[in-house]
Amino acid sequence: QAVMTVETSVPFTGHRIDTPSRSVETTPKELLSFFREMSLMRRMEIAADSLYKAKLIRGFCHLYDGQEAVAVGMEAAITKKDAIITAYRDHCIFLGRGGKLIEAFSELMGRRAGCSKGKGGSMHFYRREAEFYGGHGIVGAQIPLGCGIALGQKYSKEETVTFTMYGDGAANQGQLFEALNMSALWDLPVILVCENNHYGMGTAEWRAAKSPAYYKRGDYVPGLKVDGMDALAVKQACKFAKEHVLKNGPMILEMDTYRYHGHSMSDPGSSYRTRDEISGIRQERDPIERIRKLILSHEISTANELKDIEKEVRKEVDAAIAQAKECPMPDSSELFANIYVKGLGVKDQAP
Amino acid sequence: QAVMTVETSVPFTGHRIDTPSRSVETTPKELLSFFREMSLMRRMEIAADSLYKAKLIRGFCHLYDGQEAVAVGMEAAITKKDAIITAYRDHCIFLGRGGKLIEAFSELMGRRAGCSKGKGGSMHFYRREAEFYGGHGIVGAQIPLGCGIALGQKYSKEETVTFTMYGDGAANQGQLFEALNMSALWDLPVILVCENNHYGMGTAEWRAAKSPAYYKRGDYVPGLKVDGMDALAVKQACKFAKEHVLKNGPMILEMDTYRYHGHSMSDPGSSYRTRDEISGIRQERDPIERIRKLILSHEISTANELKDIEKEVRKEVDAAIAQAKECPMPDSSELFANIYVKGLGVKDQAP
Amino acid sequence: EKMTVRDALNSAIDEEMAADPKVFLMGEEVGEYQGAYKVSRGLLDKYGPERVRDTPITEAGFTGIGVGAAYYGLKPVVEFMTFNFSMQAIDQIINSAAKSNYMSGGQISVPIVFRGPNGAAAGVAAQHSHCYAAWYASCPGLKVLSPYSSEDARGMLKAAIRDPDPVIFLENEILYGESFPVSADVLDSNFCLPIGKAMIEREGKHVTITAFSKMVGYALKAAEILSKDGISAEIINLRSIRPLDRDTINASVRKTNRLVTVEEGFPQHGVGAEICAVVVEESFEYLDAPVERIAGADVPMPYAPNLERLAVPQVEDIVRAAKRACYRSVPMAAAA
Amino acid sequence: EKMTVRDALNSAIDEEMAADPKVFLMGEEVGEYQGAYKVSRGLLDKYGPERVRDTPITEAGFTGIGVGAAYYGLKPVVEFMTFNFSMQAIDQIINSAAKSNYMSGGQISVPIVFRGPNGAAAGVAAQHSHCYAAWYASCPGLKVLSPYSSEDARGMLKAAIRDPDPVIFLENEILYGESFPVSADVLDSNFCLPIGKAMIEREGKHVTITAFSKMVGYALKAAEILSKDGISAEIINLRSIRPLDRDTINASVRKTNRLVTVEEGFPQHGVGAEICAVVVEESFEYLDAPVERIAGADVPMPYAPNLERLAVPQVEDIVRAAKRACYRSVPMAAAA
Ligand SMILES: Cc1ncc(C[n+]2csc(CCOP(=O)(O)OP(=O)(O)O)c2C)c(N)n1
Ligand SMILES: Cc1ncc(C[n+]2csc(CCOP(=O)(O)OP(=O)(O)O)c2C)c(N)n1
Ligand SMILES: [Mg+2]
Ligand SMILES: [Mg+2]
């Protein structure tokens, strides 16, 4: 299929680095796959919302709808040998890494077919075989962890890199600065991806950060600000960053993005921002609509064909949910499994 | 006495702020008091070295000789209603705050007349009555603590400020970034004083920090780089900073200084730096010699008069040591005192 | 009259803020968002942003700032959204808050309260379910309280805020929404409970059951069931983990001769272990059966509901343990 | 032949680094400075800066990096200059290292060792004297070891580095310079001690004394003194705090019928409390006297030498406790 070139929505903004070109190469196939994958992610998250309301998902559940372009754009730029680690808003990153819907829904409902055997739940998805390291619930903790994975990659002389993802709220954490300093001292092949959705729970970025220029964090490391609602811009930036960090050590990518849902299921998401703000972004910047428009304007598919994809996706999600609901909970013996790789005589102490 | 004007050794370097003038106002009296106080500090530290070797001081003991200009210059710019908090290298800060030699030596030797009743030791000097908040052993912890004191000052609407002091090694700690961000968001009247003596234990600054421009830490807060071996430059910078932070919130002062001794008594201080480096600094930049030269060149005192001051200081130190040696250890009942202000029935549990 | 634990906590903070201008609240989402669990609802409106201070998600930093403000003489109430996140700040709590009064020979007092939900909630898995009672209670310089009812919550939080020393105040998310009867006394703005005193929630003769926080409710339910089997259980609500009310615990065991300890946290070096040691030290000769320890399973908290249920004590576990304790009497030392 | 504990640790790291290229050491001053306490002397020269990595003073950050490297499959040995500083990193240890294998359903193993001096040293006061044995040992997912002798140090550190799970390895600064005899076996590069097994350092009949780290030496001295009074003490060197070797402890108590626990850390929720609970649970009927718990005083560590001496267990304290235990036999339950 023909390679085509598309301009990113807005220019990249660089810090201590020349920005990559706004012209991104893509193919009709890639655009269609972006459309399909993002639609699947969106549908999965909306289904999770319903399952939560039906009390089939419990505890904390953080949805990713609105931010899908980051997950798919990043995957388009890297391979499954590159590593990713993220926070609790992890469902779609897991899908991006090749995880299956059935594993996702099973995990969400605490079933044994879950990607963490039902033991982790919404916040703790993993897919080690595709270098996806979770799924972390403590704000900021995954940043040094990601830098450590990159240390492992460099130590092992693999030419791979790690994407360590965190929110605008997490960007204020001291451990970011500590890990960034060491990564820079040691030239680790790590990309710090700040998914700036402009709120950390109910706190707007400017109330939490004196300087919300997250791509400049720490000042001495190169950074790019990227339209995180534009999958092609994300792809371009991630490709650029991967090449950069393999040669020069860490780099920051700030993805300007947005979450449609509240922070988690207990947050209606409307007390600290206006409904106009949300609907404005849905109208102007929605990542799926952007790709739909590209596909239509380049006459790659018709509107109806895209609707069909969306229907398919819906069916897939429904089927996966049905299957997951049939899946049993973990066996009781799982309570004491996986505490250790090598148990060494720790007694199983139940209450 | 006549006010005189002296030029600082080197210009200030500013970050996001106009630098103060290099011309510093002083008086013969001030210069003589600088000479006397720094000589006293120097002598105290050298005596502590001997007492340590005689096993009268135990544990960790971090000496300040070489850095005296920071302590005296800072005090010359502020009042005892302004607060100071520092790390474990605290003996001379305590003296600067009006602490007595006998309290210092008693504390060092674990005697009841010590400034912390002998319970804190070298690292935990305090003088609450003069707003000296210690004396902290955990690298970096005093930075947010100092910002919190400043929050107290602002909350209480006192027009006072806090100087929170830390080393170049501590400057990499994440809690600095966290505290700086909040101080900036909340316009706290705090001055972060980085005493850059160029080593954190055996680690040269450039091995510990990708960007050793400590006065630029975090980037968005104004900072000044100051010759920390020049008491007048320190005074000028502190005065300037106090005014600034009362109006605008936090500021960073990086004091370019040097410790002559090893990191603590177990460190000969010669494996990670050359003897030439140390003696070069003693010859070119010693803070006491700088003031001596100024006094002599301005014909404020004669060389002999200054020698006499040094002799007096020596006697004072010897007398304080003798007195401290006579001072008894704390009473055994002190073991269970001061755990709480209000004990509420916690049983005294001895081994 | 009835009141939820949430309202009890809210009113306690409110009243203490009204009474003492040095008291202020800080933490994530305590202000504009009205509290992640709405414990601070309405306080921002009432007291303004200087006294109800939203912080960034930087626990180490804001805890240090809180402690520094307490050094200066303010009385901060620091909310951790949950105590799991206090681990990022634990150095400041232990080294800067708990130890400063001692290290300074009494010069630096630290009147601060650290509060928030502790331990297991529902379905929040391993990183959000840790109980820190034993950790903090091991540390001299701290006081550690854990309320069960609305009366506890009001009386103990008000006492904690007035106390001149650092207090760790361990709440429970699941209890926030529970309602308890409260008397007029409890609603009085002078109402305070003494720190260091346990509360006998139910008197009994045959077995002593100690518990704190949510487990007090479970223990009371177990007592109900046990009473049907003719076993009269005395339920001690510990309220204070440090100081631990050794006197009340020992007096009860000297009466019942049997002890069951209940907690949701991990067993090893837990609250039950300490209570066992305290009773063995002081009342060994009164014990007619081995101490029964009921604790959370010795595993990171699993998410799946069936596993989660197995991982935390259930009422049946307490009943079973109490029966074990009661049907056994001490045999003569076998190998003496 | 004799060897210091320092050399035992050094040789253990050295051999494991030689045997497995995935093993590397990181921490403050471990490289060019040769270790703050010289435990890593010579290793930088031998293995280069990629495998002996000096870090800035940023515990939270470098611990997270170490754990991430272990996720990836490396085997980091992370040195804390002292364990006091591990509090800045404890969230990474508990939430990222201990719980990941479980949360991921066994996908993410974390083969990492955290090591460094723990607990009281000499004259270093409250912030540098904390014993973390009980805290870490309360957490499922971790293994917690604490060596006494050079044999312990070598055998346990080598086992810890080879182990696929996160291990907390608690050393003691004062022991670094102590020499112990070591056999040819111990010096063999294949020598490893089993994790989870205690060691009976001295057999005895009348009273069991448990201890770990430096206190093992004190307990042995106490046993010497007690033997002069005709009391034969069995000394158990715990070696492993988690898993705790319940079997060895209980077997000993079933023989001696009396128990003294010794530790330098704080008493409340400490190692002694757990051992007491474990013995009461499994061997209650064998106990002829209340368990005697010797621990550090329940105070932040004071600096003054006279107070410091009062704050940590002395040999006499152990002797006195053992005598108390021996001269008492269990009275009949008084109020049954
Ligand atoms: C250390 C810590 N503090 C607080 C929390 C509670 N918490 C969970 S997510 C969150 C907001 C994070 O916001 P951001 O980093 O912007 O990520 P987003 O949720 O927007 O993706 C908070 C406060 C936590 N999990 N960990
Ligand atoms: C959190 C923490 N880590 C490690 C240490 C051990 N330590 C004490 S001082 C020090 C070096 C600090 O260097 P710097 O901040 O430059 O201050 P300086 O000693 O030069 O005054 C280290 C590593 C500590 N006290 N606290
Ligand atoms: Mg966000
Ligand atoms: Mg330094």
From TrEMBL, chains A, B:
Assembly description: Tetramer of 2 alpha and 2 beta subunits.
Cofactor(s) needed by this chain: thiamine diphosphate
Reactions the enzyme catalyzes: N(6)-[(R)-lipoyl]-L-lysyl-[protein] + pyruvate + H(+) = N(6)-[(R)-S(8)-acetyldihydrolipoyl]-L-lysyl-[protein] + CO2
Domain Dehydrogenase E1 component: 37-331
Lineage: superkingdom: Eukaryota
Protein name listed in UniProt: Pyruvate dehydrogenase E1 component subunit alpha
Gene Ontology molecular function, alphabetical: pyruvate dehydrogenase (acetyl-transferring) activity
Name of encoding gene: E1 ALPHA
Record's function text: The pyruvate dehydrogenase complex catalyzes the overall conversion of pyruvate to acetyl-CoA and CO(2). It contains multiple copies of three enzymatic components: pyruvate dehydrogenase (E1), dihydrolipoamide acetyltransferase (E2) and lipoamide dehydrogenase (E3).
Keyword Nucleotide-binding included in the entry's annotation: no
